[in-house]
Design brief:
Layout: E1 6-9, E2 14-17, H1 30-40, H2 95-109, H3 111-114, E3 120-127, E4 133-141, E5 144-152
Antiparallel strand pairs: 1-2, 3-4, 4-5
Length: 156
């Protein structure tokens, strides 16, 4: 069974559930939906991370319970849900930030390689003319590269 599809809207820099003409949820864009969820769910900040608001470390509440997972499953170090790309606007606009952004995208999507969904994941960060940032993401699955381009602006 296919999952409900999230569709990225480059004009608003947001994703939403896709609705069909008959009012049903659109399905079948499983890889794109997994990428959107992985990148735009906030992973918890580590001590020393550069964050916009030092009081808000964000993160997914269930990561707290990762040690309680089934002991029969192999442990994956630093296995956390989401990404740290939410921290990008607290950083200086320079090449180091773009490199950091690309790395954070690759870290957030690494689970796809571990789980056999993809054989390779790569990303390139860029600045937009409107003061935002973006990432071009390439995922190789079954030998076929799929490219996604996400750009977003800082919320005030």
């Amino acid at each position: 069974m296919a999952d409900a599809s999230l569709i990225w809207d480059p004009d608003t820099g947001t994703a939403d559930l896709a609705m069909g003409t008959n009012g049903d949820l659109v399905t079948g864009k499983d890889l794109e939906t997994a990428v959107i969820i992985s990148l735009f769910s906030d992973a918890q900040a580590d001590p020393g991370d550069t964050v916009p608001d030092t009081a808000d470390r964000r993160g997914w509440w269930a990561d707290t319970y990762s040690a309680l997972e089934d002991p029969a499953l192999p442990a994956i170090a630093n296995d956390r849900f989401g990404s740290k790309i939410w921290q990008v606007f607290a950083r200086i606009r320079n090449q180091e930030t773009l490199n950091w952004l690309a790395n954070q995208v690759e870290v957030a999507l690494h689970w796809m390689i571990v789980d056999g969904v993809a054989s390779a994941v790569s990303a390139t960060g860029y600045f937009t003319s409107s003061g935002g940032v973006g990432a071009r993401v390439t995922i190789v699955s079954s030998g076929v590269p799929t490219i996604y381009d996400f750009a977003w602006a800082q919320e005030h």
